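Interim report, section 4.2 (structural modelling).
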Amino acid sequence: MTFAFYVFAIVAVAATILTITRVNAMHALLYLIVSLLAVAGVFFTLGAPFAAALEVIVYAGAIMILYVFAVMMLNLGEVTLQEERRWLWPQLWIGPSILAAILLVELLYMLMVGNVGPPPGEEVGPAAVAARLFGPYLLAVELASMLLLAGLVGAYRIGRILEPRLSAEETAPESEASPAPETEAVEGKRAVQA
Amino acid sequence: MSTVPIEHALLLAVMLFALGLIGVLVRRNLIFMLMSIEIMLNATSLAFVAAGARWAEPDGQVMFILVLTLAAAEVSLALALLMQVFRRFRTLDADALSELRG
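Predicted structure of the assembly:
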């Protein structure tokens, strides 16, 4: 099933080219997700089904969702109804949809035909990977877990909202505007306590 | 039914890596630069998996899993930094940020 590899490869390269040439970050993200799905298909045709599953779950699933959240949070200041309406334009999703449809058709074709992937002798299944991972590479697994812990703690530490010390002038109007609801809330709480 | 030659898989990895490198060099928005770095990491893991598949050894996929953890940690830290940069400077342009130094 070598032609499946080439179709996946062409889709991956096309989606990657479209990713790095988009102006809108959301368009680029959609193309990047399609590119990662295509690379997952490449992994499968190369005889690495476990890597393909991880690519879909972790890369195209978790990491890309993180990007989507970040892009949406960064756009928060300029979000208007117009922006919201733009999500529904076909221009946004028609390109990634076509590429994803190609992947879907190929996947269905491979399922229909059956007997896909490399010959059984050349396929490296999850059991072999796990045996190797928790055998000679046990130390690497521990180091990877330390890395993930460092990433977690670091992201929590860096991502916190700093006290507005440097940008005091910038946030001054907001802080002037905000006391009213706060005092209302405090008074409401006092009323409840009374 | 024949298997994919490793040269073609490596060629694909090189193309994806080059596209990611072009993205890092050309784009000036930090989000796009991060995405291009993701593409490059993905291309290197593709090369690992291709090499592992060539000799039917699981080491390539082990390396892929390690690259995956690296990418996850990198993305969480980089996006947190990105949010801080945007909160401080109200821009994500790499050139505008470099002018603030000194």
